[in-house]
Design a protein that fits this description.
alpha/beta; two-stranded antiparallel ribbon; Helicase, Ruva Protein, domain 3; five-stranded parallel beta sheet; 2 domains; 7 strands; 15 helices
Length: 316
Amino acid sequence: MPASGKFDLTRSAKMQTAIERIKRFAASRAPLFFAGERGVGKDEAVSFAHARSLRADKALHTVNCPELTATLKSELFGHVKGAFTGAVGESNGLLRAADGGSLYLAEALSLPLELQSALLNVLDDKAGCRVGSTRRESYDFRLIAASRLDPKELINRGDLLQDYLDRIAVLVVEIPPLRERMEDLPALVDALLERAGYQSSFERSFSNDARKKMLDYDWPGNVRELDVVVQRICAFAGAGRVEAEHIERNADIPWFAGVYAKSDEAVIGKPKRGRRSKHPLDDIRRARQLRKEGATLKEVTQKTGIPRSTASSLTR
Protein backbone atom coordinates (compact mmCIF):
# COMPACT_ATOMS: atom_id res chain seq x y z
CA MET A 1 0.00 0.00 0.00
CA PRO A 2 1.13 3.54 -0.66
CA ALA A 3 2.31 5.47 2.36
CA SER A 4 -0.44 6.98 4.48
CA GLY A 5 0.92 10.43 3.68
CA LYS A 6 -0.42 9.97 0.13
CA PHE A 7 -3.71 8.37 1.13
CA ASP A 8 -5.69 11.53 0.38
CA LEU A 9 -4.21 12.14 -3.08
CA THR A 10 -7.15 11.15 -5.27
CA ARG A 11 -9.12 12.28 -8.29
CA SER A 12 -12.04 9.96 -7.54
CA ALA A 13 -15.26 11.62 -6.34
CA LYS A 14 -16.10 8.54 -4.26
CA MET A 15 -12.70 8.48 -2.62
CA GLN A 16 -12.81 12.23 -2.02
CA THR A 17 -16.14 11.77 -0.23
CA ALA A 18 -14.64 9.01 1.94
CA ILE A 19 -11.61 11.15 2.80
CA GLU A 20 -13.73 14.15 3.72
CA ARG A 21 -15.76 11.96 6.05
CA ILE A 22 -12.61 10.58 7.64
CA LYS A 23 -11.30 14.10 8.27
CA ARG A 24 -14.64 15.16 9.74
CA PHE A 25 -14.99 12.05 11.91
CA ALA A 26 -11.35 11.89 13.03
CA ALA A 27 -11.77 14.55 15.73
CA SER A 28 -14.89 12.88 17.16
CA ARG A 29 -14.75 10.68 20.24
CA ALA A 30 -17.39 8.32 18.81
CA PRO A 31 -16.41 4.85 17.54
CA LEU A 32 -15.37 4.90 13.88
CA PHE A 33 -15.95 1.97 11.51
CA PHE A 34 -14.42 1.37 8.07
CA ALA A 35 -16.22 -0.89 5.60
CA GLY A 36 -14.79 -2.14 2.33
CA GLU A 37 -13.62 -5.12 0.35
CA ARG A 38 -10.39 -6.95 0.99
CA GLY A 39 -7.38 -4.93 -0.10
CA VAL A 40 -9.05 -1.50 -0.53
CA GLY A 41 -6.85 0.15 2.09
CA LYS A 42 -8.81 0.02 5.34
CA ASP A 43 -5.62 -0.17 7.43
CA GLU A 44 -4.32 2.93 5.65
CA ALA A 45 -7.62 4.68 6.35
CA VAL A 46 -7.33 3.81 10.04
CA SER A 47 -3.81 5.25 10.24
CA PHE A 48 -4.96 8.35 8.34
CA ALA A 49 -7.83 8.87 10.80
CA HIS A 50 -5.72 8.27 13.90
CA ALA A 51 -3.11 10.79 12.70
CA ARG A 52 -5.86 13.44 12.58
CA SER A 53 -7.58 12.49 15.83
CA LEU A 54 -7.38 14.05 19.27
CA ARG A 55 -5.10 11.15 20.23
CA ALA A 56 -2.64 11.53 17.35
CA ASP A 57 0.26 11.86 19.79
CA LYS A 58 -0.66 8.55 21.43
CA ALA A 59 -0.25 5.00 20.17
CA LEU A 60 -2.56 3.16 17.79
CA HIS A 61 -2.93 -0.42 19.06
CA THR A 62 -4.16 -3.06 16.61
CA VAL A 63 -6.12 -6.18 17.55
CA ASN A 64 -6.43 -8.74 14.75
CA CYS A 65 -9.84 -10.15 15.64
CA PRO A 66 -9.71 -13.33 13.50
CA GLU A 67 -6.76 -14.46 15.64
CA LEU A 68 -8.78 -14.24 18.87
CA THR A 69 -10.93 -17.09 20.16
CA ALA A 70 -13.31 -17.20 23.09
CA THR A 71 -10.60 -19.01 25.07
CA LEU A 72 -8.28 -16.03 24.56
CA LYS A 73 -10.46 -13.57 26.47
CA SER A 74 -7.46 -12.80 28.64
CA GLU A 75 -5.63 -11.46 25.57
CA LEU A 76 -8.17 -8.63 25.43
CA PHE A 77 -8.96 -8.07 29.09
CA GLY A 78 -5.82 -9.32 30.76
CA HIS A 79 -5.77 -11.67 33.76
CA VAL A 80 -4.65 -11.92 37.33
CA LYS A 81 -2.18 -14.45 38.66
CA GLY A 82 -3.78 -17.89 39.04
CA ALA A 83 -6.84 -17.02 36.92
CA PHE A 84 -6.34 -20.22 34.94
CA THR A 85 -3.79 -22.97 34.47
CA GLY A 86 -0.57 -21.40 33.28
CA ALA A 87 -1.39 -17.92 34.57
CA VAL A 88 1.79 -17.66 36.61
CA GLY A 89 1.82 -13.89 36.44
CA GLU A 90 -0.46 -10.94 35.67
CA SER A 91 -1.33 -9.53 32.26
CA ASN A 92 -2.82 -6.13 31.52
CA GLY A 93 -4.35 -7.16 28.19
CA LEU A 94 -4.78 -5.35 24.89
CA LEU A 95 -7.49 -3.00 26.15
CA ARG A 96 -5.19 -1.68 28.85
CA ALA A 97 -2.34 -1.35 26.35
CA ALA A 98 -4.53 0.99 24.27
CA ASP A 99 -5.35 3.19 27.27
CA GLY A 100 -4.94 6.84 26.33
CA GLY A 101 -4.66 6.12 22.61
CA SER A 102 -6.71 4.43 19.90
CA LEU A 103 -7.77 0.77 19.77
CA TYR A 104 -8.11 -0.65 16.26
CA LEU A 105 -10.19 -3.83 15.89
CA ALA A 106 -9.11 -5.22 12.51
CA GLU A 107 -11.81 -7.42 10.95
CA ALA A 108 -13.97 -6.59 13.96
CA LEU A 109 -16.98 -8.54 12.67
CA SER A 110 -14.96 -11.77 12.91
CA LEU A 111 -14.76 -11.56 16.71
CA PRO A 112 -16.32 -14.63 18.43
CA LEU A 113 -19.81 -14.06 19.88
CA GLU A 114 -18.61 -14.51 23.47
CA LEU A 115 -16.03 -11.77 23.05
CA GLN A 116 -18.55 -9.53 21.28
CA SER A 117 -20.78 -9.85 24.34
CA ALA A 118 -17.89 -9.26 26.73
CA LEU A 119 -16.93 -6.06 24.90
CA LEU A 120 -20.42 -4.57 25.09
CA ASN A 121 -20.11 -3.40 28.69
CA VAL A 122 -16.59 -2.12 28.10
CA LEU A 123 -17.75 -0.05 25.13
CA ASP A 124 -20.71 1.29 27.11
CA ASP A 125 -18.97 2.00 30.41
CA LYS A 126 -15.30 2.11 29.35
CA ALA A 127 -14.63 -0.26 32.22
CA GLY A 128 -14.20 -4.00 32.71
CA CYS A 129 -12.61 -6.77 34.75
CA ARG A 130 -9.51 -8.78 34.08
CA VAL A 131 -10.03 -12.54 33.87
CA GLY A 132 -10.05 -13.95 37.40
CA SER A 133 -10.84 -10.61 39.02
CA THR A 134 -14.04 -8.86 40.12
CA ARG A 135 -12.45 -5.43 40.35
CA ARG A 136 -13.57 -3.15 37.53
CA GLU A 137 -10.88 -1.10 35.84
CA SER A 138 -11.52 1.93 33.68
CA TYR A 139 -10.30 2.30 30.10
CA ASP A 140 -9.75 5.38 28.02
CA PHE A 141 -9.37 4.76 24.29
CA ARG A 142 -10.90 5.80 20.99
CA LEU A 143 -12.34 2.77 19.21
CA ILE A 144 -11.71 2.30 15.49
CA ALA A 145 -12.87 -0.86 13.72
CA ALA A 146 -12.94 -2.24 10.20
CA SER A 147 -14.25 -5.25 8.31
CA ARG A 148 -14.80 -6.57 4.80
CA LEU A 149 -17.71 -8.78 5.91
CA ASP A 150 -21.44 -8.14 5.35
CA PRO A 151 -23.02 -7.40 8.76
CA LYS A 152 -26.55 -8.26 7.59
CA GLU A 153 -25.46 -11.72 6.51
CA LEU A 154 -23.61 -12.30 9.79
CA ILE A 155 -26.60 -11.18 11.87
CA ASN A 156 -28.93 -13.45 9.88
CA ARG A 157 -26.54 -16.37 10.48
CA GLY A 158 -26.38 -15.61 14.19
CA ASP A 159 -22.66 -14.82 14.07
CA LEU A 160 -22.95 -11.12 14.91
CA LEU A 161 -24.72 -9.34 17.75
CA GLN A 162 -26.72 -6.31 16.66
CA ASP A 163 -25.86 -4.59 19.96
CA TYR A 164 -22.14 -5.11 19.29
CA LEU A 165 -22.46 -3.72 15.76
CA ASP A 166 -24.36 -0.69 17.08
CA ARG A 167 -21.50 0.06 19.52
CA ILE A 168 -18.60 -0.24 17.07
CA ALA A 169 -20.20 1.32 13.97
CA VAL A 170 -21.44 4.70 15.16
CA LEU A 171 -19.56 6.64 12.48
CA VAL A 172 -19.14 4.69 9.24
CA VAL A 173 -16.90 5.30 6.23
CA GLU A 174 -16.94 3.00 3.21
CA ILE A 175 -13.70 2.77 1.23
CA PRO A 176 -14.58 2.23 -2.46
CA PRO A 177 -13.05 -0.66 -4.42
CA LEU A 178 -10.36 0.16 -6.96
CA ARG A 179 -12.65 -0.66 -9.91
CA GLU A 180 -14.82 2.30 -8.86
CA ARG A 181 -11.89 4.74 -8.67
CA MET A 182 -9.83 3.77 -11.70
CA GLU A 183 -8.86 7.39 -12.33
CA ASP A 184 -6.56 6.93 -9.31
CA LEU A 185 -4.73 3.94 -10.75
CA PRO A 186 -1.86 5.90 -12.39
CA ALA A 187 -1.09 7.77 -9.14
CA LEU A 188 -1.32 4.55 -7.13
CA VAL A 189 1.09 2.81 -9.49
CA ASP A 190 3.48 5.78 -9.20
CA ALA A 191 3.38 5.55 -5.39
CA LEU A 192 3.97 1.80 -5.48
CA LEU A 193 6.88 2.22 -7.89
CA GLU A 194 8.39 4.86 -5.62
CA ARG A 195 8.00 2.65 -2.57
CA ALA A 196 9.67 -0.23 -4.42
CA GLY A 197 12.61 2.03 -5.26
CA TYR A 198 11.93 2.48 -8.97
CA GLN A 199 12.67 5.92 -10.44
CA SER A 200 9.84 5.76 -12.96
CA SER A 201 6.13 6.42 -13.40
CA PHE A 202 3.02 4.87 -14.94
CA GLU A 203 3.01 7.34 -17.85
CA ARG A 204 6.76 7.19 -18.59
CA SER A 205 7.53 3.51 -18.02
CA PHE A 206 4.39 1.72 -19.24
CA SER A 207 3.66 1.39 -22.94
CA ASN A 208 0.23 2.36 -24.27
CA ASP A 209 -0.80 -1.30 -24.50
CA ALA A 210 0.48 -1.99 -20.99
CA ARG A 211 -1.44 0.97 -19.55
CA LYS A 212 -4.59 -0.16 -21.35
CA LYS A 213 -4.32 -3.66 -19.87
CA MET A 214 -3.95 -2.19 -16.40
CA LEU A 215 -6.96 0.09 -16.89
CA ASP A 216 -9.07 -2.64 -18.52
CA TYR A 217 -8.77 -4.92 -15.48
CA ASP A 218 -11.32 -4.83 -12.63
CA TRP A 219 -8.80 -5.50 -9.82
CA PRO A 220 -10.91 -7.79 -7.57
CA GLY A 221 -8.03 -7.79 -5.08
CA ASN A 222 -8.02 -3.99 -5.13
CA VAL A 223 -4.91 -1.98 -4.19
CA ARG A 224 -3.32 -4.97 -2.48
CA GLU A 225 -3.48 -6.95 -5.73
CA LEU A 226 -2.19 -3.90 -7.63
CA ASP A 227 0.82 -3.80 -5.30
CA VAL A 228 1.62 -7.46 -5.99
CA VAL A 229 1.20 -7.08 -9.74
CA VAL A 230 3.33 -3.93 -9.95
CA GLN A 231 6.19 -5.64 -8.12
CA ARG A 232 5.92 -8.68 -10.38
CA ILE A 233 5.79 -6.85 -13.70
CA CYS A 234 8.71 -4.63 -12.66
CA ALA A 235 10.70 -7.81 -12.00
CA PHE A 236 9.73 -9.13 -15.45
CA ALA A 237 10.57 -5.83 -17.17
CA GLY A 238 13.76 -5.14 -15.24
CA ALA A 239 15.15 -1.71 -16.05
CA GLY A 240 13.32 -1.62 -19.37
CA ARG A 241 9.93 -0.33 -20.43
CA VAL A 242 6.87 -2.23 -19.17
CA GLU A 243 5.12 -3.84 -22.14
CA ALA A 244 1.80 -5.68 -22.39
CA GLU A 245 3.66 -9.02 -22.43
CA HIS A 246 5.04 -8.36 -18.95
CA ILE A 247 1.51 -7.93 -17.63
CA GLU A 248 0.27 -10.97 -19.53
CA ARG A 249 2.80 -13.13 -17.69
CA ASN A 250 0.66 -12.77 -14.54
CA ALA A 251 -1.92 -14.96 -16.28
CA ASP A 252 0.79 -17.56 -16.96
CA ILE A 253 1.41 -18.28 -13.27
CA PRO A 254 -1.01 -21.18 -12.52
CA TRP A 255 -0.69 -20.89 -8.76
CA PHE A 256 -1.41 -17.15 -8.74
CA ALA A 257 -3.81 -16.66 -11.66
CA GLY A 258 -7.28 -15.85 -10.41
CA VAL A 259 -6.40 -16.04 -6.72
CA TYR A 260 -8.22 -12.75 -6.12
CA ALA A 261 -10.97 -13.41 -8.65
CA LYS A 262 -14.26 -15.27 -8.56
CA SER A 263 -13.61 -16.80 -11.98
CA ASP A 264 -10.63 -17.53 -14.22
CA GLU A 265 -11.85 -14.82 -16.61
CA ALA A 266 -10.94 -12.10 -14.11
CA VAL A 267 -7.18 -12.44 -14.34
CA ILE A 268 -5.01 -9.53 -15.39
CA GLY A 269 -3.59 -10.14 -18.84
CA LYS A 270 -6.61 -12.20 -19.95
CA PRO A 271 -9.34 -10.65 -22.11
CA LYS A 272 -12.65 -9.97 -20.42
CA ARG A 273 -16.15 -9.13 -21.52
CA GLY A 274 -16.92 -5.54 -22.44
CA ARG A 275 -14.69 -3.04 -24.16
CA ARG A 276 -12.93 -0.37 -22.15
CA SER A 277 -11.25 2.71 -23.52
CA LYS A 278 -7.68 3.71 -22.66
CA HIS A 279 -8.86 6.18 -20.05
CA PRO A 280 -11.66 5.41 -17.53
CA LEU A 281 -12.94 8.98 -17.74
CA ASP A 282 -13.82 8.33 -21.40
CA ASP A 283 -15.90 5.34 -20.27
CA ILE A 284 -17.69 7.50 -17.72
CA ARG A 285 -18.56 10.14 -20.31
CA ARG A 286 -19.73 7.48 -22.74
CA ALA A 287 -21.85 5.78 -20.06
CA ARG A 288 -23.56 9.04 -19.19
CA GLN A 289 -24.24 9.78 -22.85
CA LEU A 290 -25.67 6.29 -23.41
CA ARG A 291 -28.02 6.72 -20.46
CA LYS A 292 -29.16 10.09 -21.81
CA GLU A 293 -29.96 8.32 -25.07
CA GLY A 294 -32.11 5.79 -23.21
CA ALA A 295 -29.74 2.82 -22.93
CA THR A 296 -30.37 0.35 -20.11
CA LEU A 297 -27.75 -0.32 -17.43
CA LYS A 298 -27.13 -3.72 -19.03
CA GLU A 299 -26.47 -2.09 -22.40
CA VAL A 300 -24.15 0.49 -20.79
CA THR A 301 -22.17 -2.30 -19.11
CA GLN A 302 -21.89 -4.29 -22.34
CA LYS A 303 -20.73 -1.29 -24.37
CA THR A 304 -18.32 0.29 -21.88
CA GLY A 305 -17.20 -2.56 -19.63
CA ILE A 306 -18.15 -0.52 -16.54
CA PRO A 307 -19.72 -2.76 -13.83
CA ARG A 308 -23.51 -2.39 -13.55
CA SER A 309 -23.38 -1.01 -9.98
CA THR A 310 -20.80 1.58 -11.01
CA ALA A 311 -22.76 2.56 -14.11
CA SER A 312 -25.85 3.06 -11.95
CA SER A 313 -24.06 5.39 -9.50
CA LEU A 314 -22.42 7.36 -12.32
CA THR A 315 -25.63 8.05 -14.21
CA ARG A 316 -28.08 8.84 -11.43
